Amino acid sequence: MSSSSATLRPASPEFHDDDSRIAHNRVWFNLQRIERSMAPRISRALKAEGIEDPIWYEILIEVERAGAEGLQMAELERRLFVAQYALSRHVTRLEGAGLLRREKMRGAGRAQRLFLTESAIGLHDRIWPTYMAAIQAEIAPRLSVEEAYALCRLLIRLYP
Q1: What sign results for the dihedral spanned by CA atoms 62, 129, 39, 102?
Q2: What CATH class does 3-156 carry?
Q3: pTM value?
Q4: φ, ψ for residue 118 (rounded to 5)?
Q5: Residue ranges per structural domain of the chain
Q6: Which residues on neighbouring strands pair with residue 116, listed in sequence order?
Q7: Residue 3 confidence (pLDDT) above 70
């Protein structure tokens, strides 16, 4: 059997696909649709706490974890898988909200390091209960704890 005919084997009868490769497409489309269906409600909960976009929370928590020495923008970009232009736009908005400050790194071209402002210190402790409740409201009724961990293990395999 050639490799192309092996790939074209019948798929799961549950999905009625003639081509098993469609399974990977289904994963992609389902991940996108899940995000689009849950994100608006989770985003509203965060906005009520002053966080305009869920990525703001991720940016702030990564900078907080970096501690007193701050976090390089390039490193933040790698950790969050966010394009430089989009990350820069979010950081600019976080600066405008008084939650982050940037410092240019000496001798490093355009490299910058991010720091939390005084008003952002402790923000995680205030926001986390709201964020967690919003996530729980979306996912906990649909997955058991064991299923959630199993799905995490699978999704982690998709990271580059």
Answers
A1: negative
A2: mainly alpha
A3: 0.83
A4: -55, -40
A5: 3-156
A6: 100
A7: no
